Amino acid sequence: MRPHLRKLLSTGAPFVYSMLKCMSLVVSRPDLYLWSSLMKATTNLSGQVALVTGSGRGIGASIAQKLASLGAAVVVCGRTLSHLEAMVSSIRAQGGEARAQACDVNDLASVEKLAAMVEQNFHRLDILVNNAGVGSFAGPLHEMTPQAWEKVLNTNLRGVFYSMRAFVPIMIKSGGGHIINISSLAGKNPLPNGAAYAASKWGLNGLSYSVAEELRSRRIRVSLICPGSVDTELGPHDGKDANKMLKAEDVAHVVAMLVAQAPQSFASEVLLRPTEKP
Ligand SMILES: NC(=O)c1ccc[n+]([C@@H]2O[C@H](COP(=O)([O-])OP(=O)(O)OC[C@H]3O[C@@H](n4cnc5c(N)ncnc54)[C@H](OP(=O)(O)O)[C@@H]3O)[C@@H](O)[C@H]2O)c1
Fold first, then answer.
1. CATH homologous superfamily of 43-272
2. 3-class DSSP assignment, residue 33
3. Which tens digit of pLDDT belongs to each residue from 10-43?
4. Residue-wise pLDDT tens digits, 163-176
5. Which protein residue's CA is at the shortest distance from atom 32 of ligand 1?
6. What residue spans define the domains of the chain?
7. Global pTM value
8. Measured from the CB, is residue 134 less than 6 Å from ligand 1?
9. Cis status of the peptide bond prior to 3, with omega within 30 of 0
10. For residue 88, which of 18, 156, 189, 191 sits 20 to 30 Å off, Cα-Cα?
């Protein structure tokens, strides 16, 4: 592609691309550079700060990468520091801004310490993605240990409460923002042998709808993403065709769509299914 067109596309609005395409001045299958330029032209998160819980691997890692690629300074957190440090290196190698801090969402003091770091270093928070979660799909509820129940509920539901308790005041001071809670289609349907997981996600949905109403007047949108099977370490994916399952990047793409909305627009829930049943 001609250099002056590249420059125009990297700084211009999407209509410029449409116009040029009509005039056949752009190759019919635009390269990756063009698409990333267009994405940046339409969604520019420069100056914004994002925090993604459970972002050392899996869906959270993809979300952190995506938000950083759109210009946000991203705080990555989770329990395994080595994963977080690898994420920061990877984001920085691609020209993004990132910072890591270990945090266990089961531990209020740990979450509050993270909030203090964000306030001290960034003085704001614009995007909070509550993604950290654990599964438990070993058998029927009556055979589940109380310890296993607590791990699932304390991470997937109480962890989001702790996160909101710690970070919402910073977001209010920042003048608004977007909270995205990663739920599941298991929060919409029954899940035999995964009752505690389903309960945690049904609970998360109720929590999210309610807090969304509490925070609308503060210009904070609280959205839910409910994905079906995603190809990560979290199960149960036995007997499923990984090629048909969602990829972590698909969830990250929806996060990017949500934060790209116009200020007056609030998509409160996205149900994300694999195109073909895996
Ligand atoms: N995979 C699916 O099919 C699927 C479908 C629908 C929804 N989801 C939801 O998507 C979210 C991410 O799942 P995933 O598939 O990416 O799972 P994953 O690959 O197992 O990753 C889970 C992430 O959460 C972190 N984490 C777990 N417990 C934590 C804690 N107590 N404190 C802080 N971080 C914690 C993990 O990091 P550390 O272990 O280092 O802490 C890891 O980064 C979860 O909420 C899950 O319920 C997944």
1. NAD(P)-binding Rossmann-like Domain (3.40.50.720)
2. helix
3. 444 444 444 333 333 333 434 444 444 444 556 8
4. 999 999 999 999 99
5. 104
6. 1-42, 43-272
7. 0.88
8. yes
9. no
10. 156
